[in-house]
């Protein structure tokens, strides 16, 4: 069955003027699918979707006969709504093109609500092999399997299989959505997907294009994020084109910006106690209320495990992740999760080891406004130091692959296989707001040293979470004075929003100081610390925008390590070459 339901309405359209008009990046085709983002089903559509095979029966006749084994035979409201929208997309020519490629064993980049994925038939070793090749992904890092219905999941198992009870209510209520769960490996899923593990990771994406495509294929899709391995995940189709265009993959489906912006939460409900292996679009707080998840732990926040740490199966532990070309300095709010004594991390290397629990306090100390003020002062202090360093001409060459700084604390080295090119070590700078005179900030010598080391060549990028009322996207900031006195809090000067798609900087002038303003600073507003989900939505786009603008270094203001901020800080620590606690 291919999900060719006759349903009313057509909520999608290709780019006007052509039946199947695409933009070509060399030999990679980009097809746009515009979506009516109102996911409310029209009257009668839920029933039509359910009976069409896009909902509980999307896996076809075989799956339909197993419908119910997964523990939720019917469609709940969210699943019905998503299925209805997907049904409206089922006959879209771009989706038909993508389904044909996937059926033929090719790979296609697809939008999901979290990030863009690079999809292939999850039941074909050969197809999945093309995903690893296109991304240059390490062969021992398993993929997530994407389904469009619980019946499609059930169809992967022998008759009589039942969903583990811990997931029954959870998946009925949280799918489709940014939640991946570990399940016992299906005998139908090849080693190429699971890398030989006894478990497999599965999710049902909420993006209607992804749902419609999976249903149209009639088989599940294995899909990692559609970036080159190690790069920030893509949240726009053009991010995918930047990494994998030019013929590396045949087709990118453009379904607009990803609303969530960080990847799915990876939940291991098979272990005891259950654990979040990768924080993501669904928070711990949203999960703990479900039966069996009361004692839910978060990996690296509530516990660490040496075996997990060494394995690629703990998402993102072993490999360099989320890194733009420019070195990233993370300003991390103190009081947030950072296991002592090695508080900072370098590209995923753990700051603690062993299997013992290493709980730490979470959350910001003080209000969001206090935190924002601390971040602003720290950013200004670092910018002042960098400006002064530039003015004096004494900066050292930017050396992203330089060894540990003299001030580095006892950082745990990344495993040899993960030795990140360009990943600097940890610096132990401490930006101390406490006790500092109003309007100024004291920087420990290591942080000052850090700033001066990294201030050479190209604009300085800043990802901001501390500016209240600023719209997300690139800003062009002019500072009042060329080089404010060291330690003084610089005024913010004029801020003009340059748009959130990362193109304003490129359009605004040549790379370098002309783009960045008088002091060569380019800023990108992610959102405000008080709204970490907004920050998550802009995070990867911001990293990529500043990288594209040719920034020599990127300062990133963090958020509190709680709620939606946990996923943000998880990604930022992995992207960071240096962490400075503020
Ligand atoms: O939101 C997402 O999850 C996106 C979209 C495209 O769905 N996908 C994504 O895939 O982030 P990827 O490959 O970038 O990250 C998947 C993570 C990997 O770090 C992998 O180690 C982990 O999931 N994983 C896959 N199978 C696993 C398993 N059986 N046990 C533990 N971890 C697993
Ligand atoms: Mg990824």
Describe the structure.
By secondary structure, this protein is α/β, with parallel strands linked by helices. Among the domains are: 80-310, DHBP synthase; 322-336 and 372-387 and 442-478 and 517-581, Threonylcarbamoyl-AMP synthase, C-terminal domain (Rossmann fold, 3-Layer(aba) Sandwich). It is 29% helix and 15% strand. It contains 18 helices and 23 strands. The strands form four sheets. A twelve-stranded mixed beta sheet has the order 2-3-11-5-6-10-7-9-8-12-13-14, sandwiched between helices. Strand 13 (275-278), helix 11 and strand 14 (297-298) form a beta-alpha-beta unit. Helix 1 (45-52) packs across helix 3 (77-89) and helix 3 (77-89) crosses helix 9 (208-217). The longest helix is centred in the middle third of the chain and has 25 residues, at 368-392. The termini are far apart. The model is unreliable at 1-19, 37-74, 336-365, 396-440 and 480-518 (pLDDT under 50). Threonylcarbamoyladenylate is lined by residues 112, 114-115, 117, 141-144, 178, 180, 182, 194, 197, 199-201, 205, 223-225, 263-264, 266, 277, 312-313, 315-316. Residues 112, 114-115, 117, 141-144, 178, 180, 182, 194, 197, 199-201, 205, 223-225, 263-264, 266, 277, 312-313, 315-316 line the site of threonylcarbamoyladenylate (TXA).
């Amino acid at each position: 069955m291919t999900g060719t339901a006759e349903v009313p309405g057509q909520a999608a359209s290709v780019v006007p003027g052509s039946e199947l008009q695409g933009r070509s990046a060399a030999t990679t085709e980009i097809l746009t699918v515009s979506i009516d983002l109102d996911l409310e089903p029209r009257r009668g559509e839920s029933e039509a979707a359910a009976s069409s095979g896009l909902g509980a029966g999307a896996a076809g006749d075989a799956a339909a006969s197993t419908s119910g084994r997964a523990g939720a035979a019917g469609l709940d409201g969210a699943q019905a709504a998503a299925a209805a929208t997907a049904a409206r997309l089922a006959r879209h020519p771009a989706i038909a093109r993508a389904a044909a490629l996937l059926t033929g064993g090719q790979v296609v980049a697809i939008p999901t609500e979290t990030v863009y994925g690079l999809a292939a038939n999850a039941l074909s070793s050969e197809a999945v092999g093309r995903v690893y090749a296109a991304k240059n992904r390490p062969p021992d890092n398993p993929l997530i399997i994407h389904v469009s219905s619980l019946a499609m999941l059930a169809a992967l198992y022998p008759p009589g299989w039942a969903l583990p009870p811990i997931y029954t209510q959870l998946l009925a209520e949280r799918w489709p959505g940014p939640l991946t769960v570990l399940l016992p490996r299906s005998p139908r899923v090849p080693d190429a997907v699971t890398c030989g593990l006894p478990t497999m990771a599965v999710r049902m994406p909420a993006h209607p294009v992804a749902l419609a495509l999976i249903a149209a294929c009639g088989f599940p899709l294995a899909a990692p994020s559609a970036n080159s391995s190690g790069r920030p995940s893509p949240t726009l189709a053009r991010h995918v084109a930047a990494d994998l265009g030019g013929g590396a993959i045949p087709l990118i489906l453009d379904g607009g910006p990803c609303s969530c912006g960080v990847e799915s939460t990876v939940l291991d409900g098979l272990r005891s106690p259950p654990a979040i292996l990768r924080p993501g679009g669904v928070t711990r707080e949203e999960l703990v209320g479900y039966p069996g998840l009361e004692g839910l732990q978060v990996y690296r926040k509530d516990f660490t495990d040496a075996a997990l740490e060494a394995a690629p199966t703990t998402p993102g532990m072993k490999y360099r992740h989320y890194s733009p070309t420019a070195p990233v300095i993370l300003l991390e709010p103190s009081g947030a999760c950072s296991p002592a004594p090695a508080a900072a991390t370098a590209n995923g290397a753990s700051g603690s080891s062993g299997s013992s629990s290493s709980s730490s306090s979470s959350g910001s100390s003080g209000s969001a406004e206090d935190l924002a003020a601390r971040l602003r002062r720290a950013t200004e202090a670092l910018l002042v130091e960098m400006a002064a360093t530039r003015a004096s001409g004494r900066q050292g060459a930017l050396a992203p692959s330089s060894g540990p700084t003299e001030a580095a604390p006892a950082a745990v080295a990344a495993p040899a296989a993960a030795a990140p090119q360009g990943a600097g070590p940890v610096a132990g700078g401490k930006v101390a707001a406490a006790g500092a005179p109003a309007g100024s900030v004291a920087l420990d010598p290591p942080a000052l040293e850090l700033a001066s080391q990294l201030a050479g060549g190209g604009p300085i990028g800043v990802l901001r979470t501390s500016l209240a009322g600023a719209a997300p996207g690139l800003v062009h900031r002019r500072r009042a004075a060329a080089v404010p006195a060291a330690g003084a809090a610089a005024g913010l000067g004029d801020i003009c929003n340059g748009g959130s798609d990362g193109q304003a900087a490129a359009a605004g002038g040549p790379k370098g100081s002309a783009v960045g303003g008088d002091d060569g600073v380019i800023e990108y507003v992610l959102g405000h610390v008080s709204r970490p989900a907004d920050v998550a939505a802009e995070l990867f786009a911001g990293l990529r925008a500043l990288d594209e603008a040719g920034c020599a270094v990127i300062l990133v203001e963090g958020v509190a390590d709680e709620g939606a901020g946990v996923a943000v800080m998880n990604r930022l620590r992995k992207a960071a070459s240096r962490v400075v606690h503020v």
